[in-house]
Design goal:
This protein has 230 residues and is α+β, with helices and mostly antiparallel strands. It has one domain: 2-Layer Sandwich (BirA Bifunctional Protein, domain 2), CATH 3.30.930.20. 42% of the residues lie in helices and 13% in strands. A five-stranded antiparallel beta sheet has the order 1-2-3-5-4. A hairpin with a 2-residue loop joins strand 2 and strand 3. Helix 4 crosses helix 5 and helix 4 packs across helix 10. The longest helix is centred in the first third of the chain and has 22 residues. The model has no long low-confidence stretch (mean pLDDT 94).
């Protein structure tokens, strides 16, 4: 692992803390230059850096450094159907989608930067019905393969499985299946919990890519279920 110039600085988290305390358009407009310099530009530079090395993990995931519509999620919240009308997100989200997907629900990698909550995630969040059924069927029919992946020491030491689950067994699956709790999952995501100190460390880029490699078998399993290449 090489130590280089940090991708992110403490100023990013300081800005997000101030934004959380002043989540209104007037404050953001007055501090827009800070947002660009301390949050947006470092995040886009990180996307570019990942893009140069992502083929080391897989050639089929995309790092898109556009300011809008790319790997970096917008800072603006969609408040149309929310009681919370705060206009801005108080975290940074960065995604690396599969090249054959225009949808955040397909297998992908994700970086979350928020004061007090930093993590790297991979997998598929809220997959569509057919995809979810395919994943469950693969687990039910080959439980040994799933256990080998999910219980591998290197994977378990770095990641925890997260997301939502059904309260009851899904229709069409044996409620007595030994992996019924896995089959109840509505999301198949693996999360590596980190810290602000990790994010501002010069080795964060390497750390991210190493975690992506550690999750390789997990991601390959999901890609197989989704019928896309890993």
């Amino acid at each position: 692992m090489t130590v280089e110039e940090p991708s992110f600085t403490p100023e990013l988290f300081a800005f997000l803390r101030e934004l959380a305390a002043n989540n209104d358009r007037e404050w953001f407009s007055a501090n827009k230059a800070r947002f660009v310099a301390e949050v947006q530009e470092p995040a886009l530079a990180f996307v570019e850096d990942v893009g140069m090395r992502l083929p080391e993990v897989s050639r089929h995931f995309v790092a898109d450094a556009r300011t809008s519509g790319g790997s970096l999620f917008r800072i603006y919240r969609d408040v149309r159907f929310s009681r919370d009308k705060s206009p801005y997100k108080t975290h940074v989200g960065i995604q690396f989608r599969h090249q054959q997907s225009r949808d955040v629900h397909a297998p992908g990698y994700y970086v979350h930067l928020e004061p007090g909550t930093v993590f790297i995630a991979c997998g598929t969040w809220h997959p569509e019905r057919d995809t979810l059924h395919a994943i469950r069927t693969a687990i039910a029919s080959r439980p040994g393969r799933w256990q080998e992946i999910a219980e591998a020491p290197s994977f378990r030491s770095a990641f925890r499985l997260g997301g939502e689950s059904l309260k009851r067994p899904p229709a069409g699956f044996d409620r007595e299946h030994p992996l019924i709790e896995e089959l109840k999952r509505k999301d198949f995501i693996a999360i590596a919990d980190l810290s602000e100190a990790d994010a501002v460390d010069g080795a964060f880029l390497d750390r991210f890519l190493e975690l992506c490699e550690t999750a390789g078998s997990f991601m390959r399993f999901l890609c197989d279920c989704t019928r896309v290449q890993y």
